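Weekly puzzle thread! Below is a chain. First person to post its structure in token form gets bragging rights.
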Amino acid sequence: MIFPTIHLNGTSKRELYLAYFTAHNALQDAIDTLAKSAPHGRDYYPQGDSVIYDAAKEHAKRMVTLNNVLRVLEELTLHTMP
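Winning reply:
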């Protein structure tokens, strides 16, 4: 991962920290909300018995992707912590 270089001509360490911290919190809220939208069998059974499993796999991939971004934001936040 490439971290920003904190220097006098760049964005302040505090500003970077607040931006990453805010993004991290917003993404955590999004992950919590997405988790509540996990597929339920009653919404898929008319399409066939196995469709719910495919929908669950797709949902899991979305969750993994967002959690990977969350980990990156955590690293950036820690790097810029005042």
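Puzzle host: Confirmed. Bonus trivia for everyone else. The chain has a mean pLDDT of 97.
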